[in-house]
Design goal:
15 helices; about 0% strand; globular
Length: about 300
């Protein structure tokens, strides 16, 4: 691959916020050795990108080279300091890393990136109570960070505190109402909590958002997030139609849709539609069997 092609490839990863550590390291290290790094401000973004990829792959010597160049160009830069902390996480004891982030926060209590890294380290150390406490404090200061609310919800779900998780996800929905992923996550959490009517409602909202720009969604096999949502709709409808005791009750007072049978049939059709083609025929038969025996 030519130098210009490699530089453009790495730039595209940055624009799309894609980590792609293996590929970034392969091409980035070659460019670094050849001295063919980007010019102007892009060179520093390239070094940051390569440093993160090197850390991901445990190529810490390459990460150190990048950090040295960044540190010389941007002394006392909060961004470089946090990147240095991420590098330390790969090799230093947790107590040392936490002390490092503590020092950064003492110097600048508004350093959001350092605060979030500290919370991440606490989670990895399984200090969930402390991580939760700090994350709540962080969100009191940086309320408009949807990723922070999603992380708080994830902590609550890991502790099976579904009501608290739904409250955290509600804040994420307020901050990012156009993101169908958050609606699916909310729906799945509501499903786990036992509020099937609420889960079904949110899965339907997500599907409407995902498929509204498709010319013919009924003839387009669902993939990715749409597939997850249709499976959720199918599971909710199946349990609600089965009518087990308490299944249709909703702590959120969400009503059950009137045309539940039609919705169940549509969900079955859409789920099976994802298994088109000879190569997926065996898998489709397994799903059909599961659906027929789960009624």
């Amino acid at each position: 691959m030519s130098v210009s092609s490699a530089l453009q490839r790495l730039a595209n990863y940055r624009v799309n916020h894609s980590r792609a550590s293996q590929d970034v390291f392969k091409h980035g290290q070659a460019l670094l050795k050849a001295g063919a790094t980007p010019q102007s401000d892009e060179s520093w973004e390239f070094l940051e990108q390569l440093a993160l990829a090197a850390i991901d792959l445990d190529k810490l010597d390459v990460a150190d080279v990048c950090l040295q160049k960044l540190g010389e160009r941007f002394p006392a830069s909060p961004r470089v300091e946090v990147l240095t902390g991420i590098r330390m996480e790969a090799s230093e004891p947790i107590t040392t890393v936490l002390e490092y982030y503590n020092d950064l926060l003492i110097t600048d209590p508004t350093n959001a990136a350092a605060w979030k890294r500290r919370i991440s380290v606490l989670r990895r150390a399984r200090s969930l109570d402390k991580a939760t406490e700090e994350l709540i404090q962080y969100l009191d200061t940086f309320y408009t960070d949807p990723e922070g609310w999603l992380e708080l919800a994830d902590i609550y779900v890991s502790n099976r505190q579904y009501t608290s998780a739904l409250q955290a996800l509600s804040h994420a929905l307020v901050l990012n109402p156009q993101n169908p992923f958050t609606f699916v996550q909310f729906a799945e959490t509501a499903y786990s909590s036992g509020d099937l009517p609420l889960a079904l409602k949110m899965f339907l909202v997500a599907i409407e958002m995902i498929e509204r720009d498709l010319e013919a969604p009924e003839s387009t096999p669902p993939t990715g997030l749409a597939f997850r949502a249709w499976w959720g709709i199918k599971l909710c409808a199946r349990h609600l139609l089965a009518g087990a005791s308490g299944v249709s009750s909703s702590p959120s007072n969400t009503p059950v849709p009137k045309h539940l049978k039609s919705l169940d049939a549509l969900a079955t059709e859409r789920v099976l539609g994802a298994y088109k083609g000879k190569e997926l025929e065996e898998r489709r038969h397994l799903v059909e069997h599961w659906l027929s025996t789960s009624k």
